[in-house]
Amino acid sequence: MKAVILVGGYGTRLRPLTLTQPKPLVEFANKPMMLHQMEALVAVGVDTVILAVSYRAELLEQQMKQHADQLGTLCQYFFSLDVFQ
């Protein structure tokens, strides 16, 4: 089963936490917020997580690959162009 998570955006309401990292990597309860979502999806049988990314996509991809490997799931990335530029 596949799931799509929209993780684009600049996270302006979470500044200063998002000045150096994308919003999904901000920690909540000692884990990146994205990891909580991925764990819940894996628990219900999702084997492929599709992330629609934009801001700091390369950092997000780098960090989530490690977590996806640990969870035994595949992460696919779709990069969104910034329409406001």
From TrEMBL:
It comes from the Eukaryota. InterPro entries: Mannose-1P_guanyltransferase, NTP_transferase_dom, Nucleotide-diphossugar_trans. Gene3D superfamilies: Spore Coat Polysaccharide Biosynthesis Protein SpsA, Chain A (3.90.550.10). Residues 2-68 form the Nucleotidyl transferase domain. This is Nucleotidyl transferase domain-containing protein.
